[in-house]
Structures are given as structure tokens and as C-alpha cells.
Amino acid sequence: MFFKDVIGQEKAKAFLRRSADEDRIPHARIFLGRKGSGTLAASLAFAQYVMCEDKKDGESCGVCPHCRKAEKMIHPDIHFSYPTVGSKAVSTMFSKEWRAAVSENPYLNLQQWLTAINAENKQGNITKDECVDIVKKLSLKTFEGNYKILIMWLPEFLGKEGNRLLKLIEEPPENTLFMLIAEDAEKILNTILSRCQVVQFTPLSDEEVKNALTAKGVEAGKAEQIAHLANGDLNEALTLIDESDNDNALLFLQWLRMCYLGKPSEVVEWSNKFASIGRENQKHFFDYGLFFLREYMILKLTGNERVRLNENELKTAKNLTRVIEPDQIEPMSKILTESAFHISRNANPKIMMTEVSVSMNRLLRRKPALV
Length: 371
Hints:
- The protein has 371 residues and is α/β, with parallel strands linked by helices.
- It has three domains: 3-202, P-loop containing nucleotide triphosphate hydrolases (Rossmann fold); 205-243; 248-364, Zinc Finger, Delta Prime, domain 3 (Up-down Bundle), CATH 1.20.272.
- 53% of the residues lie in helices and 7% in strands.
- The protein is built from 17 helices and five strands.
- It has helices at residues 10-21, 39-51, 65-71, 95-104, 110-116, 128-138, 166-170, 190-193, 206-215, 220-230, 234-242, 247-261, 264-275, 279-302, 311-320, 326-344, 349-364, and strands at residues 28-32, 78-81, 148-153, 176-182, 197-200.
- A five-stranded parallel beta sheet has the order 2-3-4-1-5, sandwiched between helices.
- Strand 3 (148-153), helix 7 and strand 4 (176-182) form a beta-alpha-beta unit.
- Helix 2 packs antiparallel against helix 3, helix 12 (247-261) packs across helix 17 and helix 14 (279-302) runs antiparallel to helix 16.
- The radius of gyration is 22 Å and the shape is globular.
- The termini are far apart.
């Protein structure tokens, strides 16, 4: 991949180019940015740039053996690590699927990746065996290039297993580079964070997303509308090209209506359905809910309908203005945040969602809590 293929992020790209050109590359970096901001794409471009034999005008040549292999993600000195499923799984078991998924969309999210490996109903993980494999691979000499590079996508999924990599990150073999592609610094071990230089990636502007879509042949008016809804996430924008409605949006809005009505049989039926969609989808559901409430608050307080909601979502939000007042938003958001936390800790989704739905009903109807 070339830097020119990475949308926006001019400041970060200039910084990365300069560090390579001046031969001042720290051994460990975290590319930190929200979903769809281009952190993974930038890491691929940087790895190719570092390996290139004939850099020109801030770009890799694209024709030398290192560039050709890096572009196909088969360079023997560029290694990849990413969440997988299975207690003893390692990334190399899914190399073929990884190359195919990233080649198609270097802005993909975790849910798309788990779907690509037929694991959308399971929880991703970077295992102990994966960490052992990383240590083994990086202890070897380089095969062809001047550097050994590890690109780890979503180190948040290391958990406590990240401790196995601390010594390697702190005292790596000569000419070894770590690039950790992260979305949430708070979920990374502080001992790893302290050993890495952070390269910050900002959300893409609406104009940058719009231009990226029009370059793909999307009509300008539609591209502008999608860019506004995507909120700086190019992957979300690419998804919205072919999707008139978001599954999480439909599910969340159905849930709100069901909570408001508060029929016990529907609550139980809905909770059973929710339990079947898998933990990653459940977490995405709560993420969407928090997003919707933020946009609803803007609509409620300002009356400005140019919020980041599509037509159907906006129609529902406008109807809800007669039901949900600003002072209810904070406790509703708290319920969703706590639910997401419990799901990540393997709470029973049927039991949890039944209780959460009852709590939401009481909040929407402003009933006093049970003592």
C-alpha cells in the first residue's frame, strides 16, 4: 500500500515519512485512532515504505521485490498479529483470510474480520500461543529486508497475555519494529503503552470521506449525505453505500419501542433473540445505542435536524422527543455503558437484557425504582 492510498491523515503520514527518511524510527509505536480513521492502512503503507529499496518523493517505488511482497502481505519480514478465535489459535492459521479481507478493505472493523473467519458469534482474542509465536518469529534474523516488522491489529485483545511481550518490546532484537494498531488506549496495558511512541490519528473530515466516496463513483449528493452519517469512519461510509438501514439501528430502535410498551412476554422474547446474535454483535448494539442517544440529545436541545442519523433514524428520534427528556439521557447512557461492560465480562445475555429492559421501561415511564 502507498501513503497516497491512505485517506487524509496528512500530519501523521508526514511524521511517519520523516522518521523513515531521517532513519529515526522508534522500535515500538502505537497507531492510535478511532474505527475507520486509517490506522491499519497507514501501518501497511509505512511498512512498505521502510522496506522499499528506491523511495522517491515520499512514496515507496512499488516495483522493487520488497514493495511487491509487502503490497501482497507476503513479505517474510513483515509479520501480522490480530484477534482470532480459539484458546490456542495463532494468527498464521488465518493468514489467507487476513490477506483477502485487508486487501479488500484495509479500513475493516473487528466485526467484519470475525465474519470473514466465520466467527461473528464468538469473541476475538489474542492468545498466549500467539504471544509465544511472536517471540519466536522475532527472535530470528531477517530473511530479506533490513527490518523485521510486527503489525499487531487491536492490541486491546491481548489482555494480561501482553505481559509476555513486555521484555521483547522493551529490548527488541536489532532492527525490529513493533506497530500496534489500536482504537482504545485505555484497554491496553499501561506497561505496554509506556514503552511505545503514540502516533495519533484523527477522525476523517466529512469532506475527506466524501471525496473518497466520489472517487469510487458514488454520486456527489449521496456521498455528502453518507459522509455526514459516517462521522469520520470511512469503513462505516463504505458500508452505508449499499445499506439503507443499519442492523444495529433497527434492533436498537425496536428495543426502545419494546421497552416503552413494557409487555413482559415481548421482553422475554426479545432477550432470547438478543442472546443469539453473539457477543461482538451485542457490544456493537450498545455502541450504536450510545451513538444514537448522543445524536438524539443534539436534536432535542437544538432542534437542528442535521444530526448524524439516516432518514428512518431521524424520524424515530423526532417521535421520541415527545417521550424522552434531556434529564433521562444520562441514566439511559449509564445503563447502556454498564451493559456493554457486563457483556464483555461474559454476563448471561438473556438474564441481563431482561433486567436492563425492565430498568429502561421504568426510566422511560418514570416509574420509581423498586426498593
